[in-house]
Design the sequence.
């Protein structure tokens, strides 16, 4: 026999089955357990993510925000005591004798801001740093500015560390830290099923260091030369990023060795879900519940982001403390993973029993058997594409809010309104798209339909005050922008602006973000269902098999999300039938639209699906920043993507008397109908075509041995022999 024949024979299915016996047929009980687990996994992911985000961010209020009163003597002492007493727990006030100490205290994060009590004049100085967090600086401005006004003082604001032009929102460090967390924990799930031989600690750590250097370099490349949010600082990103990614990777390795495939839940919860609200990089951590303020000191996402912010903006104040936190995660994760490996061996619970490179394993879960090199490529490219996509789209759309073409009407008689438009164009024409509307009722209808952001009503009586009509429920950020603009316009004309909010935010939605979280929950529940099904039930290849599962999931998760948001959290009050009904339609439609790519391309197709149905839709939805503050590229997407339609559904139900619901439902229905038709007519035939490659065996999986009774000695010997052959 020739060498070629030997090689062919060694790689034949019979030879592979002899070396790596396939698992025994699945019992009915095992199949039921597997299917139940496939519902539990997306349920837990969606629940923990949106329970945390909605619960912490729907009504952020300051709690013990540390501020300082600068000044000596009885007057400063009385003011400080009164400031803390009247804040009702919102402020933690201390005394500082000298203004020169304020900058160091802000840099060290000991205070968020300060107010200098005037001695003789009538002007108080408020100090804060936008680079320390734009939301936190706004809290300082409101709290200390209002206190100064109550004392009849004029207010001068000093920004101790302004944000650079390329990072107007101050979110660059958040996106960098999020990218590092994703780079650290996402690869482990793919490695467990595709390249389990690399999960020994001594093999994994060198790979993690190189991976950390690569991904942190890419994050800097995106945020720096590509987006322009950071200028230079590559060595800083390389050092902090490599440490952060390696630390998170070692920690996730430990979780994987203990929990197997379910480690992704714990990693996501600790590293991202809790990490974002605890980070102090988006909203101030002093608006978060107390346990998140504690987690800010210990979690790796806050440590990575704060280390970058410290070095870039505050001359390294506190930098080494954050680095020490990351080093602690690295040492603890790697050390405990090593001890676990020594005690239990390299096999991982729930992972493949066969771990050699030539074992019949898929590149990604649910796919066909793939050669080892292809598995290596998939294990690298899948998480890399997620990191690059998330950091690029989020930073590109939100790093520098720039108001342009915001539609505002001037209401009044044609001649008078036209004259006002001509007067406003030189100063506001670059930001606003001004038009004349004949009546206030017409303008209100246009605001409800979101064709207008606001209407400036010209006074008809001599000496009267102009009125600005807005709708906070249609977007809090755009409302505050136009109010600020037209308050200045009215002041220039010697009058005071009156405001009318036709859709005020509820007390449980102070930031106006609830509609965005409702829509995002529906969308994630849709595409995540098929991602889990493709990985855990690739044997379901017919639309008719999947239809009742998708329908039941869509209804069940919509009921649960309403119950979570309304009854448990109290963020969305009422509208139960509408939210459940529209949620069911949205989840069902997005699931089938996502299934077209996921069922054909496997889990690798999850990345383009996430871009289309989720990531590109966030800036296009206007749920956070106004659509008129993000790059023009996203505006056309607002009318065609499912996430903007879902956010608008929630917003219209709660705030806008249902205006526009029909159009949004039509967009979602088209996505669902086209997706369902393609699945039934095209995808089913493709998956069941003659010669289609079967999915890799769903096992065998490693199950740790338990102590055996003497009567079970024969079974124990057989299990030990099987494990020895696999190793």
Sequence:
């Amino acid at each position: 026999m020739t060498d070629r024949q030997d090689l062919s024979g060694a790689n034949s299915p019979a030879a592979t089955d002899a070396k790596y016996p396939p698992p025994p047929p699945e019992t009915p009980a095992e199949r039921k357990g597997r299917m139940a687990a496939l519902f539990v996994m997306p349920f837990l992911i969606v629940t923990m993510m949106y329970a945390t985000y909605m619960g912490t961010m729907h009504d952020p209020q300051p709690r013990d925000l540390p501020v300082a009163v600068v000044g000596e003597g009885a007057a400063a002492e009385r003011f400080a005591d009164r400031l803390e007493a009247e804040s009702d727990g919102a402020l933690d006030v201390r005394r500082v004798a000298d203004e020169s100490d304020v900058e160091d205290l802000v840099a060290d994060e000991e205070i968020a801001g300060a107010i200098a009590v005037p001695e003789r004049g009538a002007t108080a100085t408020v100090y804060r740093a936008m680079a320390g967090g734009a939301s936190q600086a706004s809290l300082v401005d409101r709290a200390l500015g209002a206190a100064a006004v109550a004392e009849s003082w004029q207010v001068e604001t000093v920004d101790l560390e302004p944000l650079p032009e390329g990072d107007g929102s101050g979110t660059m460090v958040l996106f960098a830290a999020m990218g590092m967390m994703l780079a650290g924990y996402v690869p482990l799930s793919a490695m467990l099923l595709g390249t389990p031989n690399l999960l020994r600690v001594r093999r994994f750590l060198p790979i993690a260091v190189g991976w950390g250097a690569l991904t942190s370099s890419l994050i800097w490349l995106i945020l720096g030369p590509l987006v322009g949010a950071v200028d230079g600082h590559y060595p800083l990103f390389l050092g902090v990023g490599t440490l952060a990614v390696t630390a998170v990777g070692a920690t996730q390795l430990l979780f994987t060795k203990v929990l197997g495939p379910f480690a992704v839940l714990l990693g996501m919860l600790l590293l991202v879900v809790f990490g974002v609200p605890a980070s102090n990089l988006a909203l101030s951590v002093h608006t978060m519940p107390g346990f998140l303020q504690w987690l800010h000191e210990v979690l790796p996402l806050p440590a990575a982001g704060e280390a970058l912010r410290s070095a870039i903006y505050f001359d390294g104040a506190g930098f080494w403390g954050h680095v020490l936190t990351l080093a602690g995660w690295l040492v603890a994760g790697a050390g405990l993973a090593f001890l676990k490996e020594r005690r239990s061996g390299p096999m991982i619970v729930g992972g493949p029993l066969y771990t050699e490179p030539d074992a019949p394993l898929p590149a990604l879960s649910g796919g066909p058997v793939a050669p080892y090199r292809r598995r290596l490529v998939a294990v690298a490219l899948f998480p890399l594409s997620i990191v690059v996509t998330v950091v690029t789209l989020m930073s590109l759309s939100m790093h520098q809010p720039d108001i342009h073409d915001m539609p505002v009407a001037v209401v009044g008689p044609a001649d008078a309104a036209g004259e006002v438009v001509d007067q406003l164009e030189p100063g506001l024409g670059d930001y606003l798209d001004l038009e004349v509307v004949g009546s206030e009722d017409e303008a209100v209808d246009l605001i409800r339909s979101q064709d207008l952001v606001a209407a400036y009503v010209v006074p008809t009586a001599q000496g009267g005050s102009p009125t600005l009509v807005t709708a906070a429920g249609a977007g809090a950020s755009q409302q505050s922008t136009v109010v600020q603009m037209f308050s200045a316009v009215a002041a220039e004309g010697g009058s005071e602006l009156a405001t009318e909010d036709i859709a005020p935010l509820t007390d449980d939605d102070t930031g106006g973000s609830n509609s965005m979280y409702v829509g995002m929950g529906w969308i994630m529940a849709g595409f995540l269902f098929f991602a889990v099904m493709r990985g855990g039930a690739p044997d379901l290849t017919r639309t008719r098999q999947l239809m009742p599962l998708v329908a039941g999931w869509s209804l069940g998760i919509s009921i649960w999300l309403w119950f979570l948001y309304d009854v448990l959290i109290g963020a969305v009050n009422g509208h139960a039938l509408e939210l459940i009904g529209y949620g069911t339609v949205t989840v069902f439609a997005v699931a089938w639209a996502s299934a077209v790519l996921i069922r054909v391309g496997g889990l690798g197709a999850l990345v383009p699906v996430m871009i289309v149905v989720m990531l590109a839709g966030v800036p296009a939805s206007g749920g956070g920043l106004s659509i008129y503050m993000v790059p023009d590229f996203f505006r056309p997407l607002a009318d065609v993507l499912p996430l903007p339609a879902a956010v608008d559904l929630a917003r219209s139900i709660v705030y806008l008397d249902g205006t526009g619901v029909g159009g949004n439902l039509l967009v979602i229905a088209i996505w669902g109908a086209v997706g369902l038709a393609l699945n039934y007519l095209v995808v089913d035939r493709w998956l069941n075509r003659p010669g289609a490659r079967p999915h890799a065996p769903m096992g065998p999986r490693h199950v740790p041995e338990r102590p055996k009774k003497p009567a079970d000695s024969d079974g124990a010997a057989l299990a030990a022999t099987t494990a020895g052959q696999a190793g």
Q: What stands out?
A: The first helix runs from residue 3 to 10. The CA atoms of residues 39 and 553 lie 8 Å apart. The beta strands are 65-70, 91-96, 113-116, 123-128, 154-159, 406-411, 432-437, 454-457, 467-470, 498-501. The radius of gyration is 29 Å.
